[in-house]
Specification:
CATH class of the largest domain: Alpha Beta
GO molecular function, one term: DNA-binding transcription factor activity
Number of helices: 17
Keywords: Cytoplasm, RNA-binding, Transcription, Transcription antitermination, Transcription regulation, Transcription termination
Family: Belongs to the NusA family.
Radius of gyration: 37 Å
Organism: Flavobacterium macacae
Number of strands: 15
Pfam families: KH_NusA_1st, KH_NusA_2nd, NusA_N
Helix content: 25-40%
Structural class: alpha/beta
């Protein structure tokens, strides 16, 4: 088999792997040099000439002519008798160049060459893939569901690259079928052996930030800056925004008319409730805004401990805490302060109030827990609430809530 024919045989990998011919030739030279080292012990006296345009190559071995009786190193030396078979005028001390045909290496060596080439091309692909996706970390990426597994969803992009979306990186309400297009951010690229594993996330704060950039032109253009993002994936998020231009209302621009701009983001995140608030360097005002929709009476801040006592009227406490404690938790994460709620109210009423746990013989523990999740842990705190509001904010049926209210009213009437 001639060199060019063998090169063309190897070049089938070029089309399969989308590798350019110049790179392929460089890999081929490396592979052939390894083969020469194995057969001859060294490749120092070999010249490999590659023509990437024609896909051809030549291998030439250089040897010094010695007297027939002085031959010590067959790879680097050639006898005068043998040299004169090539060219009658050769003399001792001159250098002879001979072309080496790849077929001369032997069938087994050629098979080894092919296997080595496959390995080198895979190594090249993996290195390029690793670099490519390393540069995409933090960017939104779309891929198609290829396989759904209990602990991860395997995605494939348009170029056939495999991307892993682990269960813990999925929003709790996510449900995928084969063929679905999935958006997320490239969170990490890990090397598993020599193969890169690309990790996607839909729960990262960065994903929400990038969605704002993608969906809201002013954010993309830099007219509105995102100063902070915190999330409880699938439940609630808070985003602090600011603008250098006083003419731009950053919150209004992000939310849009009747929520038109933010609606697509909410839908992408499984109806995650997103609060957009104006950022400020005034800590008290920032905490007040972060605790929205609750109305804060006053705040006492301890900068050393990074704690803040937030004073609220009784009817505002449950709003500040939010369902499952999500609102106050996110407000604390966004502002960087540990928030302690201090209730304000009628002292006589407070003294007359009763902890909800005192009714455990009449009200089931899980019902008491549901009220506690939204910051209602006393009898009067529940009696002050609207029934429809309690139905909306808890997982309790209206009938259950009415039963609780009846029990509590009986206590105070007695």
């Amino acid at each position: 088999m001639e060199n060019i024919a063998l090169i063309e045989s190897f070049s089938e990998f070029k089309d399969d792997k989308l590798i350019d011919r110049v790179t392929l030739m460089a890999i081929l030279e490396d592979v052939f040099r390894n083969a020469l080292k194995k057969k001859y012990g060294s490749d120092d006296n070999f010249d490999i000439i590659i023509n990437p345009d024609k896909g051809d190559m030549e291998i030439w071995r250089r040897r010094v002519i010695v007297a027939d009786e002085d031959l010590d190193f067959e790879n680097e030396e050639i006898t005068l008798t043998e040299a004169r078979r090539i060219e009658p005028d050769f003399e001792i001390g001159e250098e002879v160049s001979e072309e080496v045909k790849l077929i001369d290496l032997g069938r087994r060596a050629i098979l080894a060459l092919r296997q080595n080439l496959i390995s080198k091309i895979h190594e090249h692909d993996n290195t390029n893939l690793y670099k490519q996706f390393k540069d995409l970390i933090g960017d939104i990426y779309t891929a198609e569901v290829h396989h759904v597994r209990p602990r991860a969803v395997i995605l494939v992009d348009d170029e056939g690259n495999e991307i892993v979306l682990p269960k813990e990186k999925q929003i709790p309400s996510d449900f995928f079928r084969k063929g679905d297009n999935v958006r997320g951010i490239i969170e990490n690229v890990e090397l598993k052996g020599n193969k890169p594993q690309i990790i996607m996330s839909r729960t990262s704060e960065k994903f929400l930030e990038k969605l704002f950039e993608q969906e809201i032109p002013e954010v993309f253009d830099g007219l509105i800056m995102i100063k902070g993002v915190v999330r409880i994936p699938g439940e609630k998020a808070k985003v602090a925004v600011d603008s250098y231009d006083d003419r731009i209302d950053p919150v209004g621009a992000c939310v849009g008319m009747k929520g038109s701009r933010i609606h697509g983001i909410v839908r992408e995140l499984g109806n995650e409730n997103i609060d957009v608030i104006n950022y400020t360097t005034n800590t008290q005002l920032f905490i007040t805004r972060a605790l929205s929709p609750a109305k804060v009476s006053s705040i006492k801040i301890n900068e050393e401990t990074k704690r803040a006592e937030v004073f609220l009227k009784l009817e505002e406490v449950s709003k500040a805490i939010g369902r499952g404690g999500h609102n106050i938790k996110l407000a604390g994460l966004l502002t960087g302060y540990e928030l302690d709620v201090i209730r304000e109210g009628n002292i006589a009423e407070e003294e007359d109030d009763v902890e909800l746990t005192e009714f455990s013989d009449e009200i089931e523990a899980w019902v008491i827990e549901e009220f506690a999740k939204i910051g209602l842990d006393t009898a009067r705190s529940i009696l002050k609430q609207d029934v429809n509001d309690l139905v909306r904010r808890t997982d309790l049926e209206e009938e259950t809530i009415l039963d609780v209210i009846r029990i509590l009213k009986d206590e105070f009437e007695d």
